[in-house]
Automatic annotation (TrEMBL):
Protein name: prephenate dehydratase
Record's keyword terms, sorted: Amino-acid biosynthesis, Aromatic amino acid biosynthesis, Lyase, Phenylalanine biosynthesis, Signal
Entry annotated with the keyword Transferase: no
Reaction catalysis annotation: prephenate + H(+) = 3-phenylpyruvate + CO2 + H2O
Length: 336
């Protein structure tokens, strides 16, 4: 699979020709995973970065090196751009907001673990940024440790909270007494195990993290699901202004009681609901901030956006094209 990106400096938008090529993938840990043999080409446009950084696409992502967020960035933008790992998603978004980097890639939700609430909060709290694209990747969580690790002696399992949540059934069955410790990312978990030198501590990440940090794969696919995928948003300081994008992301603050009426008003004239994520409004019990994603065949015109902002009291957070990209999942560690 490959994704090829071509940055067109000096114009209003960057055109990304994305080749999505199906590939054989084993997510069951047995070495005989299903095979897909389809290919398609999508055209996705994202806004051009500022002139002073237009000679290279700079992308911030949740590090360290080896996260699935890094893989998502490489698939969306190509592998020749300047990728900058950050300690937190908030740090990555701040670099976008102040113009230090062109884009950030942010995990949003997982099919098993649900919405990544910390990162949704970070996005909602960010000023002057817009969602301009998405990437969907399969997640194949893998248990790894130092060479010579004995599973019967494992006392601690490190991973991001999404990695732990996605693997909870396997851990309950196979390592019920091991302490589960959250880390900033699954790649960070692998790095800590490698640096710690303790064979009683293991990490949950993806196969590529084992190679990157010199660890031994102990068990494959501990999430025990072929449906395990994470969706990432691509974020820029410059919003997509064209009207042909089929997805739009909005934010709204209201009580839970008001939400059904707002959604009813929003989902008219061919507009459909994709998903809703709620976060505390931090004002009163029952008040929330909602991240609302809508879909519309033919795209969201300025008139439709105005209708939604006026009638449904929604604030536009970005327009983008829906694109699902599959990957063999062998080159990086899950970054949720």
């Amino acid at each position: 699979m490959a994704m090829y990106a071509k940055l067109l400096a000096g114009v209003l938008a960057v055109s990304l020709s994305i080749a999505l090529v199906g590939c054989s993938q084993d997510q069951g840990g047995s070495g005989s995973g299903g095979s897909a043999s389809s290919s398609s080409v999508e055209s996705v446009e994202v806004p051009a970065p500022d002139a002073e950084i237009a000679d290279v696409t700079t992308v911030a992502y949740l590090g360290p090196e080896g996260t699935y967020t890094e893989e998502a960035a490489k698939l969306f933008f190509g592998t020749n751009d300047d990728l900058k790992p950050q300690a937190t998603v908030s740090d990555a978004l701040a670099l976008v907001a102040d113009g230090t980097v062109s884009y950030a890639v942010v995990p949003q939700e997982n099919t098993l673990g649900g919405p990544v609430t910390d990162y949704i909060d970070a996005l909602l709290a960010s000023q002057d940024v817009s969602v301009v694209g998405e990437v969907v990747l399969p997640i194949r969580q893998t248990l790894m440790g130092l060479p010579g690790t004995d599973l019967t002696q494992v006392k601690r399992v490190l991973s991001h909270k999404q990695g732990l949540a996605q693997s909870s059934a396997w851990l309950d069955e196979n390592l019920p007494n091991a302490e589960r410790i959250e880390t900033a990312s699954t790649a960070a978990a692998a790095q800590q195990v490698a640096d710690g030198g303790d064979t009683s501590t293991v990490a949950i990440a993806a196969p590529g993290a084992a190679d990157l940090y010199g660890l031994e794969v102990l068990r494959e696919n501990v999430s025990k699901s072929d449906a395990n995928k994470t969706r990432f948003y691509v974020v820029s300081r410059h919003a997509n202004e064209l009207a042909g994008y089929d997805r739009a992301l909005f934010v709204a603050s209201m009580s839970a009681e008001e939400l059904p009426g707002v959604l009813n008003s929003a989902c008219a004239n061919g507009t459909k609901l994709v998903c809703v994520h709620d976060r505390p409004g931090k004002t009163a019990l029952g008040d929330y901030r909602y991240e609302i994603e809508l879909e519309r065949e033919g795209g969201f015109t300025d008139e439709e956006v105005s209708r939604l902002e006026d009638i449904a009291q929604l604030q536009l957070l970005g327009r983008f094209a829906s694109v699902e990209t599959t990957s063999a999942g062998n080159s990086a560690s899950s970054s949720e």
